Amino acid sequence: MAEKNALLERYLSCHVCSETFRDPVSLSCSHKFCSSCLQQFWEQAKNKNCPICKRKSSKDYPGVDYALKELADWFAGRQQETEERERKMELVCKHQEEPKLFCEDEDRAVCPVCEFSLHHTHKVVPVEQAVSDLKEQLKSDLKSLQDKRDKYKQVEKTYNDMIQHSKKQLLSTEQQIRAEFNKIQQFLKEEEESRLAALREEEEQKGKTISREMKRIEEQISSLSDSICAVEEELHKHNVPFLSSYKATQTRARAQSSLSDPQLLSGALIDVAKHLGNLSFRVWKNMKDKVHFSPVILDPNTASGWLYLSDDLTSVRRGDTKQQLPDNTERNTEYSTVLGSESFSSGKHSWEVEVGDHPDWNVGLVKESVDRKGKCLASPKYGIWCLMYHSGKYTDGSGETVTVKKSLQRIRVQLDYDRGEVSFYDPEDMTHIYTYRETFTEKLFPYFSVGESGHAKTTEIKMCPTEISL
């Protein structure tokens, strides 16, 4: 009987995993495998050959052999029953009684007759109590596993949200890039037409000038030709007629001979150097006057769902509805905050922020490791150095009132990383407002927060369009 079971087990075992078949499939060479084992083997081998005889399979996905599967499932069930029966037999001693006690020290059930004396120094409890306690432990383990799975599912959902959001970002960013280049192309087209028009206008004007000069020259040539003919006629006359008429002809000839020689006009040709000289530079200079540089660009991946950024990422306002955005690591979720896209870890930096009449804002810098998900005060203790405006008052990170001479429309933020200073000024007259002094040990990001009290307004806080150097 044992030999038959061994033979049957060998017949129903997969040659890859050595376990009883699960969804068995047969290849054309008659060798059989678990469907998943075969596919995994093929993926690793990067071919479709039989794992035993190496013959190439005629099918990429062989069908399940249901007759063999039924036999394998029956055999697996029979094995499980045998193992369960043997396990119960192990728990029953020679007294043919089910154990009623459990030794916690040895973590096994014991017979109260033949083994109890061996465990008098151990902690022994009734089996029912042990089973109850162990099931409670297992329930706790199950809860931990379920919690862990929920966390993985949440991360999986966040990744799915990020994938969908990235697709939206792709389409939106592509459209904005095309729009910006269309503006540049339109500007260049207009510049090209303007310069070609100036070239054609100069050619037309100088052509008219040359035409007028040529007409005057032609008139002079005609007059001189008439005088030459008159002189030649006089020279052919006889003595008496000649003496009576030569004087007038001579006077006319001498008058025309005394005229100044004709001179070519200066600058009659097109000024090619004016049109082509430094052409690219002059076009770039004109373009530079029309475009603006912002020293700080806002990072939309850090923005709270309540915040709406402008297309050029230089201004931010709080909206009436919260956007559905992925909860990526960089995003600020607890407060209506957005950070700059570039950080500072050395040197001097400065920029201006236009706050206008916005009723509630924070402007300054934060350290890279600032808590973006939990509650934290806007103070140096939490890695935030800012100037705040709320309820008509300006305050620092400790909540102390900051005195200003007049309502601020713009704020100049100035960072000297190496000296450990963050300063705020009124750029209109460079009046000093407040300075933090700190020893910085990590990267700092520009920081902007828009309070709830201003969400009903369309006012924005935005970067000023020009760069400020220290």
From TrEMBL:
Stored InterPro entries: B30.2/SPRY, B30.2/SPRY_sf, Butyrophylin_SPRY, ConA-like_dom_sf, PRY, SPRY_dom, TRIM/RBCC, Znf_B-box
Span of domain B box-type: 87-127
Pfam family, one: SPRY
Subcellular location per the Swiss-Prot or TrEMBL entry: Cytoplasm
Signal peptide: none
Domain RING-type: start-end pairs: 14-54
Keyword Zinc: yes
GO MF entry, a single one: zinc ion binding
Domain B30.2/SPRY: start-end pairs: 276-466
Coiled-coil residue spans: 128-155, 189-220
Gene3D superfamilies (alphabetical): 2.60.120.920, Classic Zinc Finger (3.30.160.60), Zinc/RING finger domain, C3HC4 (zinc finger) (3.30.40.10)
Domain of life: Eukaryota
Keyword vocabulary terms for this entry: Coiled coil, Cytoplasm, Metal-binding, Zinc, Zinc-finger
GO cellular component entries: cytoplasm
Family to which this protein belongs: Belongs to the TRIM/RBCC family.
PANTHER family tied to this protein: E3 UBIQUITIN-PROTEIN LIGASE TRIM
Name of the protein in question: Nuclear factor 7, brain-like
Source organism of the structure: Anabas testudineus
